[in-house]
Design goal:
Actin, Chain A, domain 4; 4 domains; six-stranded mixed beta sheet; Nucleotidyltransferase, domain 5; five-stranded mixed beta sheet; about 550 residues; alpha+beta; binds adenosine monophosphate
């Protein structure tokens, strides 16, 4: 079975294709969303998802989140005294999703289509693929998130050519993609975004508003109080979308503080964030050479697009209502499952060609003559520009800059700076050329970049036709199959907590956290129910445990 996975910054989902279309597979707690949070304790027990998130207030040092942002880097996370790279933490999330799917489907899951942000460069895509492999999943195809969204909305099935914009505001990232459906090809025309803008910033605004009203300083709150404040602020942010005001209540030391925040007030405080949203929208349209009015449909994905402040802003900007038929959290995973079905060549889905764009510029270093006889070296000459649809092939002709020059060296670089030194070095090649006066001899440098992130560089001497070729397959940070197998073994000691106990554990963690937050009678009441539940756990009768858990759960729902 091939599944589709949305490995998100905040939440991850797994989906499969059924006769009625793609479907999300619920996790061991019966929920569709699994928070992309991992916690490891000193004994090597791994907690993934909600349980890991719940451990954050009690054991903040054992929990990692938003590691997708560091994918493809060597960032080191230390949890429970052990070291992890971002892709390894991601592999633990994938392992948990895979187990849930296998349990639900009653068959082995061996392969997955995983979605990645359209702007993910080769290094980050490779890291995502390795995360899959470390989790025991073959990942032959990746799909970019906006394409997955378009596929889930069924837009690939349209008969008319359509231009649409996918607006993706997640927890910590913001991506805009302009796509075009042209005949049978679904093409990403341009992508833009802001890696440091997302729903969390809207939570931050809410928290700051509260602090301001309550005349409190963030730095005067304990670490646990800060975690709690943000949790309350997030709740208030959810609630404000369908009402005029929200009341936030927060326990500071011994004092319970309540403040009311008006919708208008919150909207004004978010104005700066809304302006920040405008920039990538403008940039992606400019790169795609389109105007706001050329967009036929606007699709919303990412949890933060549920904010009515954001929706209102988009209606004003595009002068049209965005398409919100689907649950913005689930769209990408469903699209990935459709892509999995396309890969399996299932009869129910029409295969469409999905293209992608190169999210960075590829070029070479050149010497420029900025005035007669005066040269400046170290300049960058773009060959394949950012947001070019791939596969793509472009040629640039470069002339000799010195008399009797007998060699040309082509350094292959990736990046956006005018200066070669600021861009990423990928490799180089050298070719001999006949001597002659400067400017007489020339080479054609052709870059061909394909959908699997293979860059082929070909240099041809114009006068002699002599050629040299270089193939760059992704970059450093490669792991061989043996290395992956070895690391898999090393990670194998980590035990993802058995499914059966997950609900009990989550309830207890939540109860412990609330006990710490509560005072007086509330605390006593919680203690009574926790003790009853623990006693039931010790006695071990299945029905009794379930009944006690339900009871405790009800209290927690009431009190949280
Ligand atoms: P994602 O990364 O797509 O899962 O998005 C997560 C972000 O969406 C977080 O910042 C959440 O606070 C936010 N979010 C989820 N549901 C809502 C909602 N109903 N209203 C406002 N924000 C939400």
């Amino acid at each position: 079975m091939i599944v589709g996975i949305d490995l998100g910054t905040t939440n991850s989902l797994i989906a499969y294709f059924t006769e009625e279309g793609p479907k999300i597979i619920p996790n061991r707690l019966g929920k569709n969303l699994t928070p992309s949070v991992v916690s490891v304790d000193e004994e090597g027990n791994v907690y993934v998802g909600e349980t890991a998130r719940e451990r954050k207030s009690l054991y903040p040092d054992s929990v990692a989140e938003t590691f997708k942002r560091s994918m493809g880097t060597e960032r080191d996370y230390v949890l429970g005294g052990k070291h992890f790279k971002p892709e390894e933490l991601s592999s633990l999330v994938l392992r948990s999703l895979k187990e849930d799917a296998e349990h639900y489907l009653g068959e082995e899951v061996t392969e997955a289509v995983i979605s990645v942000p359209a702007y993910f460069d080769d290094k980050r895509r490779k890291a995502t693929k390795r995360a899959g492999e470390l989790a025991g999943l073959k990942v032959e195809r990746m799909i970019s998130e906006p394409t997955a969204a378009a596929v889930a909305y069924g837009l690939y099935d349209k008969t008319q050519d359509t231009r649409f914009l996918v607006f993706d505001l997640g927890g910590g990232t913001f991506d805009v993609s302009v796509l075009e459906l042209y005949h049978n090809i679904l093409e990403v025309r341009a992508v833009a975004g802001d890696n440091y803008l997302g729903g969390e910033d809207f939570t931050e605004v809410m928290a700051r508003l509260f602090l301001q009203k309550a005349k409190l300083q963030l730095q005067n709150l304990s670490e646990k109080e800060q975690v709690r404040l943000y949790r309350q602020a997030e709740k208030a942010k959810y609630d404000i979308s369908d009402r005029q005001q929200v009341t936030m209540s927060f326990l500071h030391g011994e004092e319970q503080i309540e403040e009311t925040i008006q919708y208008k007030e919150y909207e004004e405080a978010c104005e700066e964030l809304l302006q920040k949203i405008r920039e990538p929208v403008k940039k992606s349209l400019a790169d795609a050479k389109l105007k706001l009015g050329d967009i036929d449909e606007v699709l919303l994905i990412g949890g933060a697009t549920r904010l009515s402040i954001v929706r209102d802003f988009l209606i004003r900007l595009f002068r049209k209502f965005p398409d919100t038929r689907m649950n913005p959290d689930e769209t990408v995973a469903l699209g990935a499952a459709v892509q999995a079905a396309m890969k399996e060549r299932r009869a129910e889905v029409r295969e469409v060609i999905l293209t992608d764009v190169c999210s960075f510029t590829l070029g070479t270093e050149v010497v420029v003559e900025y005035e007669e006889g005066r040269f400046e070296d170290g300049r960058f000459c773009p060959i394949i520009e950012r947001n070019t649809v791939i596969p793509a092939s472009h040629t640039e002709r470069l002339y000799t800059v010195r008399d009797n020059q007998d060699k040309v060296r082509v350094r292959v670089l990736q990046g956006e700076s005018r200066f070669a030194r600021n861009n990423l070095y990928l490799g180089e090649l050298e070719i001999d050329i006949p001597k002659g006066p400067k400017g007489q001899e020339a080479v054609d440098v052709t870059y061909t970049y394909d959908i699997n992130s293979l860059l082929e560089v070909e240099v041809t001497v114009v006068s002699t036709g002599q050629k040299q070729k270089l193939i760059i397959k992704g970059q450093e940070n490669q792991m061989t199959e043996e290395e992956i197998a070895k690391r898999m073994e090393e990670l194998a000691y980590l035990k993802i907590q058995p499914r059966d106990f997950e609900e009990n554990r989550l309830v207890l963690l939540r109860a412990e956290r609330m006990y710490e937050e509560a005072l007086g009678d509330r605390r006593k009441k919680l203690d009574r129910y926790i003790t009853a539940f623990e006693a039931a756990l010790k006695r071990g009768g299945h029905d009794e445990i379930e009944a006690a858990r339900e009871e405790l759960n009800e209290i927690l729902e009431e009190e949280d």
